[in-house]
Write a structure and sequence with these properties.
The strands form 3 sheets. Strands 6, 7, 8, 9 and 10 form a 5-stranded antiparallel sheet that branches. The protein is α+β, with helices and mostly antiparallel strands. A hairpin with a 6-residue loop joins strand 3 and strand 4. The chain folds into 3 domains: 109 residues, 2-Layer Sandwich (Alpha-Beta Plaits), CATH 3.30.70; 95 residues, Chitinase A, domain 3; 183 residues, Trigger factor, domain 2. It is built from 12 helices and 11 strands. This is Trigger factor. Involved in protein export. Acts as a chaperone by maintaining the newly synthesized protein in an open conformation. Functions as a peptidyl-prolyl cis-trans isomerase.
């Protein structure tokens, strides 16, 4: 077998493979003989069909089958021989497939980049710390109460937290537009469900009031035809309802799985959940910042095949998040551009983390795996059952092992970087990090 490799652009390789004619033709001949022993054709007894007849009838299909197997086997042998690591399947073109002549094909594919990790000791990482204070706890409990709140009609001027029932019609340049009309819609002031300026203009409104509200649609509004457009809304307030918060009693506590009629016990559980969420948020942001710096100091090219695979995963995740697991939506309907930047970043991080693992010969810390599983299980009523389930499900356990290995990489990088701690509020700590593009715009 002869193999030649050419670098076309970046990570793309073109590999030409020449397989001796004997290897293909002999396999075809054996397969024809096997078929002749089982073939059933009119005019011939079973197993007595002449080889020539079988070859004429089935020869082309048999050759295609053999060629497919030869390509699969020889491609693997060739990349091993040339020390190549394909990142995705090849695009194969035949050069010669004539019987009696050497079989030849060209495979075009991408390879994984060669990575030489940069020194991480000069990298500066800001590590946030925070704690759940009593004021944060009180605010969280109030938020939980608001989630369970009811509304009662009130003869009063509307204020933040009140619910208005309204009719409205919107106009742009004097013309009504699609989606700009509603009747009997409930709107809680301060919920920020409407475009900026709409809710604030209704502050102080009373039942029976009619208002003209002038607002501007944001530039990033989802409807392309409304982005940045000035609009006028004619609004009628049908009624104003005052928010009634539920009492902190046994009925309220039971909605959160707490059976005791005890405010202090409820607060303890809420604080535990807040502290758990805080720990996860701080860790996620630290990992995001650290891996972001890892990408920053290691400029690597990534294979398009891996990016496309990651985009497919992100599309599926988006469908599940917004449409549910049973959503009958083709993920390919979502534009590729929506996920491209995120996919590139994820592939870069994945390749670099794998290289850190390889360079430092890291092995999964099984004690940390056990601790992680136990922490996850502690949030369930039957922790032992959850632990047993993870350890009996290799796929789920592998996911935990991968996360732990990521954490080990994070620890190693932080040990070598310049880390400074900064204290932040609970609210800022759990707030999702702004996308890099947004941060760049704010700095500009």
């Amino acid at each position: 077998m002869q193999v030649s490799v050419e670098t076309t652009t970046g990570l793309e390789r073109q590999m030409t493979v020449v397989v001796p004619a004997e290897r293909v033709d002999s396999d075809v001949a054996k397969r024809v003989q096997q078929t002749a022993r089982t073939a059933r054709l009119d005019g011939f007894r079973p197993g007595k069909v002449p080889v020539k007849v079988v070859k004429k009838r089935y020869g082309q299909g048999i050759r295609q089958e053999v060629v497919g197997e030869v390509i699969q086997q020889s491609f693997y042998e060739a990349v091993q021989q040339e020390n190549l690591t394909p990142a995705g399947g090849p695009n194969v073109e035949f050069n010669n497939d004539k019987e009696g002549e050497d079989f030849s094909y060209t495979a075009t594919f991408e390879v994984y980049p060669e990575i030489a990790l940069a020194d991480f000791s000069s990298v500066e990482i800001e590590k946030s710390s925070a704690e759940v204070k009593d004021a944060d706890l009180d605010q969280m409990i109030e938020t939980l109460q608001k989630q369970q709140a009811s509304f009662e009609d009130a003869d009063k001027a509307a204020a933040e937290g009140d619910q208005l029932n309204i009719d409205f019609e919107g106009f742009i340049d004097g013309e009504a537009f699609d989606g700009g009309t509603a009747t009997g819609m409930d709107l809680v002031l301060g919920s920020n469900t409407m475009i900026p300026g709409f809710e604030t203009a209704l502050d102080g409104a009373k039942a029976g009031d009619e208002k003209e509200i002038n607002v501007t649609f944001p530039e990033e509004y989802h409807a392309e035809n409304l982005k940045g457009k000035d609009a006028k809304f004619n609004v009628k307030v049908n009624k104003v309802s005052q928010q009634i918060l539920p009492e902190l009693n046994e009925e309220f506590f039971s909605k959160f799985g707490i059976e005791e009629d005890n405010v202090d016990s409820f607060k303890v559980e809420v604080r535990k959940n807040m502290e758990r969420e805080l720990t996860q948020a701080l860790k996620a942001k630290l990992k995001e910042a650290t891996f972001g710096q890892l990408v920053e100091v290691n400029a690597i090219e990534v294979p398009a095949a891996l990016i496309d695979g990651e985009i497919d995963q992100l599309r599926k995740q988006a469908i599940q998040q917004f449409g549910g697991p049973d959503a009958n939506i083709d993920p390919n309907m979502l534009p590729k551009e929506m996920f491209e930047a995120q996919a590139v970043k994820r592939v870069q991080v994945g390749l670099l983390v794998a290289e850190v693992v390889k360079a430092n010969e890291l092995k999964v810390d099984e004690d940390r795996v056990r601790t992680t599983v136990e922490d996850l299980a502690s949030t369930y009523q039957e922790p032992k059952q959850v632990i047993d389930w993870y350890y009996s499900n290799q796929e789920m356990l592998s996911q935990i092992q991968n996360l732990v290995l990521e954490d080990q990489v994070l620890d190693l990088l932080l040990d070598s970087a310049k880390v400074s701690e900064v204290e932040v509020s609970y609210e800022d700590a759990i707030k999702p990090a702004a996308p890099a593009a947004e941060e760049a715009e704010e700095e500009a």
